[in-house]
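PROTEIN–LIGAND DATA SHEET

This sheet pairs a single protein chain with one bound small molecule, zinc ion, given as SMILES. Inputs appear in the order they were entered. The predicted three-dimensional arrangement of chain and ligand is reported afterwards as a token string under its own label.
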Amino acid sequence: MPAHYDLIIRGGACVLPWGIEQTSIGVRQGLIAELGVSFDAEAAETIDATGLYVLPGLIDPHVHLRDPGDPAVESVPTGTRAAVLGGVVAVFDMPNTNPAIVDAERLAEKQAYVERQAWCDIGLYVGGTKQNIPELAALETGRGVCAIKIFAGSSTGNLMVEDDEHLERVMLSGHRRIAYHSEDEYRLQARKPMFKSGDPYACHMEWRDEEVAFLGTRRLMALARRTGRAAHILHVSTAQELDYLKDFRDIATCEVLVNHLTQVAPDCYERLGGYGVMNPPIRDERHRAAAWAAVHNGTVDTIGSDHAPHARAAKERPWPDCHSGLTGVQTLVPVMLDHVNAGRLSLSRLADLMSAGPARVYGVLGKGRLAAGYDADFTLVDMGRRRRIEASWIASPCGWTPFDGKQVTGWPVATIIRGQAVMREDEVLGAPRGRLVAFAR
Ligand SMILES: [Zn+2]
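PREDICTION REPORTED AS:
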């Protein structure tokens, strides 16, 4: 009797944790049942992956879907649709919505809502504030919660814990790894009067300078060591921090953004104006090179998009009144595949940074590798496909991307989540069936 599966992905070059092997994968009941299924095995559905690479489902651990907020800019249904079009099987959504996700009631609403509306699987950050510190230990073990997020420096929204006393109290409340936006709020405020409305967009990286970021990370590392509480530093943007963090691997993991690996100042400000403005800022070539060096030497644990859409009108205001944040969940995988084709990293390292990495850092259960018993999440990519990224392809209602017009080689051609093909060849299939990601508590 030949073996029978719900789905077989046949003949692809599979990026396994131990290397790339041409093999066929059998799926039953949403899980990977077998690697290396035989040629006579049968399945209700077969996907021919000949000539394609089969990656473990890629995860974007840093998105702002603005929901609740402004659906004319972005929402859970539109942002997760963008994710699956871009080859992403799960996103971790930030809490600085309007209203923010900072208490049990808002979290319960969001948990129920995303399981009706999300096209991909989803993890939820809960925001830490000075007011909700006593509740954080309970909130961080909620269903689908990936981490507590602390804004130690101001960005979009009004969540902030900037002083050492409150940061230390946050670290002493709960036990899971905390995700930080690390910029020093005091230095940010002190430098603000040096600039005026209408200054060049490139002033963004002078206001939020290297020391703003480095000082923030030094303070957080000192507190993390003292309290013993694990930290994940989001969007590390400076050579100094990446070097410094190497001495804190007992307590710290870190993320680098695709933007900081791809875009560079002053070009981004001259060419894109407000559409190049994000926090922490895109900096000069020295920092981009340092980010790549940190990818190569293993310092970087995860890569995210920091997908943070805003209305065009808000991006087109003069600096510093233009909003900070860039659309990115749909372009993350294509831009990273282009880096693979350019020889900047291997597909195995890409899978490590974009699937195994987020699984390890956040404690995801059942995702992050192609192995029997894991969720049948796959991102199928055609490494030879050449395409131009265009704003018209962007599914987020804001309708723009800083990568508009960028020619890339390598493209996600299918997104499969728990055994269901959700996207094939730019077509979204079925209905929203995303679930909350499971995390070790
Ligand atoms: Zn962010």
